[in-house]
Specification:
alpha/beta, 5-stranded mixed barrel
């Protein structure tokens, strides 16, 4: 059995999945970190590989960019392929001056002013939490690896925040007290699907741009320069 978006057969996707946005990042992880990695999906170029990491079976699959793409792939992984845990690993913009390029952020809650939940499930929901159990395991693993991570809330936008005509107006619409430390484009759909379907999900992000620093990570750095975040996700799962 497969779907219009995923040609993998049932049983070819592991219960634990790591999801970068970029298909080439999924390929990079499979080729450099997994043992016996097998390509199980390449529909629309959205590569998925199943293999083992230190004897633990897992799948690394790309989600694409934005909530609609993440929404489709994560929903099918949870609902059809029986996936239990998804850790999204991706890039983000930093919203705090202390954040530097490639600092690692672990999401706690995510806000979207979009209508993903309303459209999917007729629920007027705009804030959803990551899974506390997964976050606890990631935090413990980071301590064991002596990796510094920042935990905080993130905003999930319908467009790349760098292109917004006035990001401050967008931020003024974020609920009072939410205090986001980062921005990305996929986590809300992932977290909401997990909540809806009784599964577990969280999100690790590496800072690749910030309004407080002039330097912006190149596409090559975004693809391969996120090693600490990748290792943290693999060791945690």
């Amino acid at each position: 059995m497969s779907t219009p978006h995923n040609e993998a057969e049932i049983g070819q996707i592991a219960k634990n999945v790591i999801m970068p946005g970029d298909p080439l990042r999924a390929k990079y992880i499979a080729e450099n970190f997994l043992e016996n990695a097998k390509l199980v999906n390449q529909v629309r170029g959205m590569f998925a590989y199943t293999g083992t990491y230190k004897g633990k079976e897992l799948t690394v699959m790309a989600s694409g960019m934005g909530m609609p793409s993440m929404g489709i792939y994560s929903y099918e992984l949870f609902k059809i392929y029986g996936v239990e845990n998804i850790i999204r690993i991706g890039s983000c913009g930093g919203y705090k001056p202390e954040l530097k390029l490639f600092d690692i952020i672990l999401a706690k809650e995510v806000f979207s002013e979009g209508n993903y939940a309303l459209t999917l499930n007729n629920e007027n929901c705009h804030i959803v939490k990551s899974n506390e159990e997964l976050n606890s395991k990631i935090t413990q693993t980071a301590n064991n690896l002596n990796l510094k991570i920042f935990e905080g809330n993130t905003v999930c936008s319908d467009c790349f925040d760098v292109y917004m005509t006035d990001v401050n107006q967008f931020l003024s619409r974020v609920p009072s007290g939410f205090n986001p430390i980062s921005a990305e484009m996929e986590a809300f759909a992932l977290f909401y699907n997990a909540q809806l379907l009784g599964k577990k999900a969280t999100c690790l992000m590496s800072v690749v741009d910030s309004k407080y620093i002039k330097e912006i990570a190149t596409p090559e750095q975004r693809q391969t320069g996120l090693t600490n975040m990748i290792k943290l996700a693999l060791e945690s799962i």
